Amino acid sequence: SKRAHTGKVAVGESNQRWCSDGFGFSCDNGEKLRVTFALDCCDREALYWAASNGGYDSETVQDVMLGAVERRFGNSLPTSPVEWLTDNGSAYRSYQTRQFARMVGLEPKHTAVRSPESNG
């Protein structure tokens, strides 16, 4: 039985909720590329992204978090926490990632397990 997707990711104003995920693909020369990104759930703007030919880890996610905050807020932090919606990947759920998120003004939230459609 498939569970109905009843959640709403979109929000009415920018900087209320951002989502982050990643995707990978193979290049013509056989190399693989992995892109990790952050989007604003209101206007769907790509705030920041990082690409590598390896996997992604907590450090990559933290780089994307910081890049997104700097893009939207410059050298300041958000005046109220921005919800950071992600899947349940280990790079997003790690203690270090969650602590870093709070340090830069983000509030980590995770989608339900096995519901990738819930993440933006």
Write the layout of secondary structure elements.
Elements: E1 17-26, E2 32-40, E3 46-52, H1 58-73, E4 82-86, H2 90-93, H3 95-103, E5 106-110
Parallel strand pairs: 1-4, 4-5
Antiparallel strand pairs: 1-2, 2-3
Helix pairs in contact: 1-3
* CATH superfamily membership: Ribonuclease H-like superfamily/Ribonuclease H
CATH secondary-structure class: Alpha Beta
Kindly report how far apart the N and C termini lie: 23 Å
Shape: globular
What is the CATH architecture descriptor? 2-Layer Sandwich
Please tally the helical runs, counting DSSP H or I stretches of 4 or more residues.
3
Number of strands: 5
> What is the ordering of alpha helices and beta strands?
EEEHEHHE
Percent range for helical residues?
10-25%
Main beta sheet: 5 strands, mixed
Strand order of the largest sheet: 3-2-1-4-5
Give the integer mean of the pLDDT values. Answer: 89
Beta-strand content estimate: 25-35%
InterPro entries: Integrase_cat-core, RNaseH-like_sf, RNaseH_sf
GO biological process, one term: DNA integration
GO molecular function, one term: nucleic acid binding
Protein name: DDE-type integrase/transposase/recombinase
Structure notes:
By secondary structure, the protein is α/β, with parallel strands linked by helices. The protein has one domain: Nucleotidyltransferase, domain 5 (2-Layer Sandwich). It has 3 helices and 5 strands; from the N terminus they run E-E-E-H-E-H-H-E. The protein has a 5-stranded mixed β-sheet.
